[in-house]
Amino acid sequence: MSHESDLSRIGISLPKNLLDRFDEILEYRGYSSRSEGIRDAIRNYITYYKWMSDVTGERQGVITMVYDHEHRGLLQVLTEIQHEYLDVIQSSLHSHVSHDKCVEVILLRGDGEKLKNIAERLMSQKGVESVKLTTIPIEE
User: Where is the Transcription factor NikR nickel binding C-terminal domain (predicted)?
Assistant: First the structure.
């Protein structure tokens, strides 16, 4: 059984602007090293994944998505994905944040598994910077 004290080395490639923003956050929050910040980020990612796996049953939800609308072909793919889920998407709101960046808010209602599926499909697209799914159970 592996413990957190058993360390493994990895190598990753990141765009400079992403690494610069990450370093700013690490400095602001007082991390002693990038490694410590990356470990914390991975722990948070795992916690979010576990939370997402508990989204079951009938739910009302909101997806908040930030993406680069200049990314080639992205708008077409996002539209196609949303059209596949017309049975759970109730409404969407699109706003231009800057010349390149947009934010979209999608209101959903339906089976939790289906809500997770659309969020994960949107999240996996190149050019999508962030996707956050928030849900609550529908009480009868």
Answer: 61-136
Give the torsion sign (CA, 16, 105, 89, 80). negative
Looking at the fold, whether 130 and 71 belong to one and the same domain comes out as yes
Shared-domain flag, residues 42 and 93? no
Both tokens assigned to 75: 């708008």
For residue 31, the one-letter residue type is: Y
Q: Is 83 one of the annotated binding-site residues?
A: yes
By CB neighbour count within 10 A (0-12 exposed, 13-18 middle, 19+ buried), where does 60 fall? Answer: middle
- Measuring CA to CA, which residue among 22, 18, 48 is closest to residue 35? 22
Residues 28 and 68 in one domain: no
Tell me, yes or no, whether 95 lies in a domain.
yes
Per-residue pLDDT of the chain in tens (140 residues, 90 and over written 9)? 556 678 888 888 989 998 999 999 899 899 999 999 999 888 888 777 766 667 778 999 999 999 999 999 999 999 999 999 999 999 999 999 999 999 999 999 999 999 999 999 999 999 999 999 988 888 76
Range of the domain at 120: 57-137
